[in-house]
Amino acid sequence: MESVELKVEMVGIHEKRLRKCLSKLRGIEKVEVDANCQKVVVTGYAHRNKILKAVRRGGMKADFWSAQNELLSAYASASTYGSLRFSNFNFF
């Protein structure tokens, strides 16, 4: 079994549409949606490109999750809950 992590631009109503698109694919065992980070984790035997294609066919912007997305979601969550503090880092 393989897990595929996707970044999907969505609002609350898109989760139902996302799950419907993915339910049509064979080999999908589990779909986890984190709407705050716009992250979707799909577990199963389906090929990762087919999963991405199915989500895009459903009318949503999607791409594979990357380390850059991890940083952006951490920054977004820190900015909503307080300030993001960098200690011992010089940027210039």
TrEMBL record:
<dbReference type="InterPro" id="IPR006121">
    <property type="entry name" value="HMA_dom"/>
</dbReference>
<dbReference type="InterPro" id="IPR036163">
    <property type="entry name" value="HMA_dom_sf"/>
</dbReference>
<protein>
    <recommendedName>
        <fullName>HMA domain-containing protein</fullName>
    </recommendedName>
</protein>
<dbReference type="Pfam" id="PF00403">
    <property type="entry name" value="HMA"/>
</dbReference>
<feature type="domain" description="HMA">
    <location>
        <begin position="16"/>
        <end position="59"/>
    </location>
</feature>
<dbReference type="GO" id="GO:0046872">
    <property type="term" value="F:metal ion binding"/>
</dbReference>
